[in-house]
């Protein structure tokens, strides 16, 4: 495992040398006296807009403004990708011909155009050139619903400005496809529950960066600190950051943000801060009081 304080020093030096045009890789320092919770985001291949980073360090690509690939019409029965629901998918840099580096999930919203992932997977703000797209139900090198352009990413300031592990969460608004459809109308979605649930069985689907199929596992989420929960399931390596923790009732109660090993994964407790961020992403007047 990489010591995050070491990575912080190396990254800051590199950013200073490259100047403002470099893409910054945020690395979250561990709290004093606490074990490091390494983010499970994998870096894309080196390109003109990105720099290589450690395999277990958070990677934050610029967002793509390129047109999304057309999405095929949905069938009456949504397909599954390696056992995963169609609304789970991989985040790619630029297009689906490259490497996927994080996982995201379509979350129900009034405008039916929102995904949820880990904060360290994407940069907050409006989309720029040359960055990330979402490929739902990606498997075996194919994206049955195409690649969807990210228009804007929403993060809590505790994360975007301070990289506070307790707020490592992001929502991203997707543009409609070439036919004018929103992502939720094509793939379906899971409902977010931001009431602080934990201590129950969850099913988690993530996309390991070194494979073309997702990894799905069911285990019990356990609260490890007042603000963090964990689940123990083998083989959740880099690339699985952003995976939704879906409870037995089908609601999202966690988002994979890290873990000290491939067999241990962590999530923040989704409570008032997550509800407030969801409300901002959907344009609501204020935070939701219960499941959203």
Number of strands: 15
Shape, please? globular
The residue fraction in helices comes out at 10-25%
Radius of gyration: 17 Å
Mean pLDDT: 76
N-to-C span? 36 Å
What fraction of residues sit in β-strands?
25-35%
Uncertain spans: 1-36, 44-83, 285-289
Largest sheet: 8 strands, mixed
Elements, N to C (H/E): HEEEEEEHEHEEEEEEEEH
Number of helices: 4
Q: Provide the structure class.
A: alpha+beta
Account of the 3D structure:
12% of the residues lie in helices and 28% in strands. It is an alpha+beta fold and 292 residues long. The strands form 2 sheets. Strands 8, 9, 10, 11, 12, 13, 14 and 15 form an 8-stranded mixed β-sheet that branches. A 6-stranded antiparallel barrel has the order 1-2-3-7-6-5. The protein is globular, with a radius of gyration of 17 Å. The model is unreliable at 1-36, 44-83 and 285-289 (pLDDT under 50).
Secondary structure layout:
Elements: H1 4-18, E1 88-93, E2 100-107, E3 114-117, E4 125-126, E5 132-136, E6 148-155, H2 157-160, E7 170-174, H3 183-187, E8 191-192, E9 201-206, E10 215-220, E11 222-225, E12 228-232, E13 244-247, E14 251-261, E15 264-268, H4 272-282
Parallel strand pairs: 8-14
Antiparallel strand pairs: 1-2, 1-5, 2-3, 3-7, 4-6, 5-6, 6-7, 9-10, 9-13, 11-12, 12-15, 13-14, 14-15
Q: Summarize this, please?
A:
This protein is α+β, with helices and mostly antiparallel strands and 292 residues long. The chain has four helices and 15 strands.
For this entry, give a set of tags.
single chain; 292 residues; six-stranded antiparallel beta barrel; 15 strands
């Amino acid at each position: 495992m990489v010591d995050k304080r070491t990575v912080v020093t190396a990254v800051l030096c590199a950013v200073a040398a490259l100047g403002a045009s470099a893409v910054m890789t945020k690395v979250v320092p561990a709290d004093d006296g606490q074990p490091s919770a390494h983010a499970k985001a994998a870096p894309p291949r080196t390109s003109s807009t990105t720099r290589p980073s450690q395999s277990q360090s958070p990677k934050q690509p610029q967002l793509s403004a390129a047109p999304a690939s057309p999405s095929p019409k949905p069938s009456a029965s949504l397909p599954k990708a390696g056992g995963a629901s169609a609304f789970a998918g991989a985040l790619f840099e630029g297009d689906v011909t490259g490497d996927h580096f994080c996982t995201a999930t379509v979350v129900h919203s009034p405008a039916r155009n929102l995904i949820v992932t880990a904060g360290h997977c994407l940069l907050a703000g409006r989309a720029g050139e040359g960055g990330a797209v979402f490929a739902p139900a990606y498997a075996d090198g194919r994206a049955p619903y195409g690649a969807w352009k990210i228009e804007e990413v929403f993060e809590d300031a505790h994360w975007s400005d301070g990289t506070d592990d307790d707020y490592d969460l992001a929502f991203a608004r997707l543009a409609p496809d070439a036919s004018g459809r929103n992502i939720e109308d094509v793939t379906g979605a899971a409902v977010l529950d931001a009431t602080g649930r934990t201590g129950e069985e969850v099913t988690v689907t993530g996309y390991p960066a070194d494979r073309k199929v997702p990894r799905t596992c069911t285990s019990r989420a356990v609260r490890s600190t007042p603000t963090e929960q964990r689940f123990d399931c083998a083989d959740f390596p880099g690339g699985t950051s952003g995976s939704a923790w879906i409870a037995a009732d089908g609601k999202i109660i966690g988002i994979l943000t890290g873990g000290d090993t491939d067999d241990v994964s962590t999530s923040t407790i989704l409570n008032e801060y997550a509800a407030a961020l969801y409300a901002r992403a959907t344009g609501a007047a204020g935070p939701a009081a219960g499941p959203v």
